[in-house]
Design a protein that fits this description.
The complex is a heterodimer of chains A (about 290) and B (about 240). With about 290 residues, chain A is mainly α. Chain A has 11 helices and 2 strands; from the N terminus they run ααααββααααααα. Chain A has one domain (about 1-125, about 140-280): Orthogonal Bundle (ABC transporter involved in vitamin B12 uptake, BtuC), CATH 1.10.3470. In chain A, α1 packs across α9, α1 (about 1-30) runs antiparallel to α10 (about 240-260) and α5 (about 140-160) crosses α6 (about 165-175). Chain B has a domain at about 5-90 and about 160-240: Rossmann fold. Classes of the chains: A mainly alpha (about 290), B alpha/beta (about 240).
Chain lengths: ~290, ~240
C-alpha cells in the first residue's frame, strides 16, 4: 500500500510534464488545426537558452525566466515565418514543416552546444520528502513541478475566460470567418497562440531536464508521451490535456515501479495505440457541429 | 460632400476559379437608406457582399466606403473601416455565450468603458438578448440568432451594414419582426443598409432602392416602389 502511494505521487510529477506538452499541443491544435511535431524540440532549445544563462550568471531563476521568454519569442517567430504560409494549405504541408522544424532545431542545438549530455539543475531539492519517517516518493522539486504546471494551466484558463485576448483566441479558433468579419486580426491572434504554446513548452523543458539530462534529442520521448496524453484527453480539450497527462504519468509510474523501468516506453506507445483504437477522439472531446 | 454615397461599387468583376459570379456590377448606396439586392439563386447576390467585405478579391473594379478605397484590403481591415457584414447563415459563434458574441463585436472599436456602454445599449435595444446573455449562443432559436448577429454587428457602430438573407429559414412572423427591426434602425439611427434577400416582397417592403441581379449583372436599379409596381420585372426575376 505504501508503495502504491509512492508510485502514485511520484507519477504526478512526470504526469504534469506530459500535461504541459499536451497543453501546448492542444493550444496550437485548437487555434490552427496543426499538430506541432516540433513542440518538444522547441522546449529543448529554450532549455539550452536557460542553460547558457545559468552558466553565465550562476542564477537558476534568471535561466528559468530566460527560457520562458525565449519560449514566447520562439513560438511567435515560428508561427509568423514558417507556419503562416501553410496554415490554409493541405494538412500534410504543416506536418512536413513541423517535422522539418524539429530536425532543424535539434541539428542547430547540436551545432551550437554539441551532442553531449549536460546536467541541468532542478529548481528545488530532489531529496525525497517524508511524512514522519515514511518516504512519500516525491521531493520538493516534484511539488514545484506540479505546482508550476498547474499554475500555468490555471493562468491560461483565466486568460481565455476573462480577457479580450482570450476572447479573440477562442473566437478565431471556433470560427475564424466570423471573427474576421468582426475586425479580429486573426493572424496576430494565431501568433499569440503559438507564443503561449512556446511558453508552456519551455516550462516543461526546464522542469523535466534535470531528470532526462539535456541533449539535442532529450525532449523526443517526452514529446511522444505528451502527444499521447493529448490524444488521451482529446486534442480539443485543455482540461483533457491535464487529466490525460496525469493519468499517463501515474500509469507509467506503476508500470515502472511494479514491472520494471525498461517496460515504460513500451507501455507508453501501447497506450497511444490502444487509445487510437478504442477512442481516438479522446476522453474529453465533445463533437460539435460548427456553423460554417 | 453631402452627395457622396455611403458605399459605391464600380464595375466589379469577381468569381471563383473559372466561374465569374459578378460580371461588371455597379451600384451605389446613399447614406441612411436601405438598398435591397434581389434576384434568383446564383444571381451573384452573396458574392457581391463577400466581395465588398473582402473575402473574394475582385478581378476588376473598385469598392469605396464614403470615398475611401476598400478594394483588395483584408476582411478584418475592411470591418475596421466601418463596414459590418452579417453573412448568410448568420455566423453566430455557437461555442461562445450571447454576451461573448456581443463583446467580440465591440473589441476593435472600443476601450473598456466604450465596450460596457455598447453592451448596455445593445441590451436596452434588444431585451431578449439581455435575458439570454449568459446562455451559450448555440441554444438560441433561428430568429434570436438573427437578432444576435445584427446586434453584434452594430456593436462597432458601423457606417454601412451588409445583411445577407436575414430571413432565411425563419417563420413569416419572425421575418416581419426582423424586417421591422432593420427599418427602425434606418429610421431611428440613420443606418445605411445593403440588404440581400431572396424574399423580395419583404425586402421591397422596407427598402428605399432596389437592385436586381441576374447572372452576375445588374438588370434593374430603381426606387423600391417603382420596382414593386413593375409586374413584368417582378414576375420575371423576383417570383411574385
Amino acid at each position: 500500500m505504501r508503495e502504491f502511494i509512492q508510485f502514485t505521487l511520484g507519477g504526478i510529477s512526470f504526469g504534469m510534464i506530459y500535461a504541459a506538452i499536451a497543453l501546448s499541443l492542444v493550444l496550437i491544435w485548437r487555434g490552427t488545426r496543426i499538430l506541432n511535431y516540433s513542440q518538444g524540440a522547441m522546449a529543448m532549445f529554450t532549455t539550452y537558452v536557460a542553460f547558457t544563462v545559468i552558466g553565465h550568471t550562476g542564477n537558476y531563476w534568471a535561466g528559468f525566466a530566460a527560457a520562458l521568454a525565449a519560449g514566447l519569442l520562439l513560438g511567435a517567430v515560428i508561427e509568423r515565418t514558417v507556419i503562416r504560409p501553410v496554415e490554409n494549405k493541405p494538412p500534410l504541408n504543416a506536418v512536413v514543416v513541423t517535422i522539418g522544424l524539429l530536425v532543424f532545431l535539434e541539428g542547430l542545438a547540436g551545432i551550437i552546444y554539441g551532442g553531449q549530455y549536460r546536467s541541468f539543475p532542478p529548481a528545488f531539492s530532489i531529496t525525497g520528502l517524508r511524512a514522519g519517517s515514511v518516504p512519500l516518493g516525491v521531493s520538493s522539486n516534484d511539488v514545484f513541478v506540479a505546482g508550476a504546471v498547474l499554475a500555468a494551466a490555471l493562468g491560461l484558463a483565466l486568460l481565455f475566460r476573462y480577457t479580450s485576448a482570450g476572447l479573440r483566441l477562442r473566437a478565431a479558433a471556433f470560427n475564424a470567418y466570423a471573427a474576421r468579419l468582426l475586425g479580429v486580426r486573426v493572424g496576430r491572434v494565431l501568433t499569440l497562440g503559438w507564443a503561449l504554446a512556446g511558453l508552456i513548452g519551455a516550462l516543461a523543458g526546464v522542469l523535466v531536464s534535470p531528470a532526462t539530462f539535456l541533449y539535442p534529442a532529450s525532449m523526443d520521448s517526452i514529446f511522444v508521451l505528451g502527444f499521447t496524453a493529448a490524444v488521451i484527453g482529446g486534442l480539443d480539450s485543455p482540461v483533457g490535456a491535464v487529466v490525460g497527462g496525469l493519468i499517463l504519468g501515474v500509469a507509467l509510474n506503476y508500470v515502472g515501479g511494479y514491472l520494471g523501468s525498461n517496460l515504460v516506453p513500451v507501455f507508453g506507445l501501447a497506450a497511444l495505440i490502444v487509445i487510437l483504437m478504442i477512442r481516438p477522439s479522446g476522453l474529453f472531446s465533445v463533437s460539435t457541429s460548427r456553423q460554417v | 460632400m453631402a452627395d457622396q454615397p455611403a458605399l459605391a461599387v464600380e464595375d466589379v468583376v469577381a468569381g471563383y476559379g473559372g466561374v465569374l459570379a459578378l460580371r461588371g456590377v455597379s451600384l451605389s448606396v446613399r447614406p441612411g437608406t436601405i438598398t435591397a439586392v434581389l434576384g434568383a439563386n446564383g444571381a451573384g447576390k452573396t458574392t457581391l457582399l463577400t466581395t465588398i467585405s473582402g473575402f473574394v478579391r475582385p478581378r476588376q473594379g473598385r469598392i469605396t466606403l464614403e470615398g475611401a478605397d476598400l478594394t483588395r484590403r483584408r476582411p478584418e481591415e475592411i470591418a475596421r473601416a466601418g463596414l459590418a457584414h452579417v453573412p448568410e447563415g448568420q455566423g453566430v459563434i455557437t461555442e461562445l455565450t450571447v454576451e461573448e458574441n456581443l463583446r467580440l463585436g465591440a473589441l476593435w472599436r472600443h476601450g473598456h468603458t466604450g465596450r460596457a456602454e455598447a453592451l448596455a445599449d445593445a441590451y436596452r435595444r434588444f431585451p431578449l438578448l439581455a435575458a439570454a446573455r449568459d446562455r451559450s449562443a448555440g441554444t438560441l432559436s433561428g430568429g434570436e440568432r438573427q437578432i444576435l448577429v445584427i446586434a453584434r454587428a452594430l456593436m462597432a457602430r458601423p457606417r454601412v451594414l451588409l445583411l445577407d438573407e436575414p430571413s432565411l429559414g425563419l417563420a413569416p412572423r419572425i421575418v416581419a419582426q426582423v424586417m421591422g427591426l432593420i427599418r427602425r434602425l434606418r429610421d431611428e439611427a440613420g443606418l445605411t443598409v445593403l440588404l440581400v434577400e431572396q424574399n423580395a416582397r419583404s425586402a421591397l417592403g422596407i427598402a428605399d432602392r432596389g437592385v436586381v441581379l441576374n447572372l452576375g449583372q445588374v438588370v434593374a436599379a430603381e426606387d423600391a416602389a417603382v420596382l414593386a409596381a413593375d409586374v413584368g420585372l417582378r414576375k420575371h426575376y423576383l417570383g411574385f
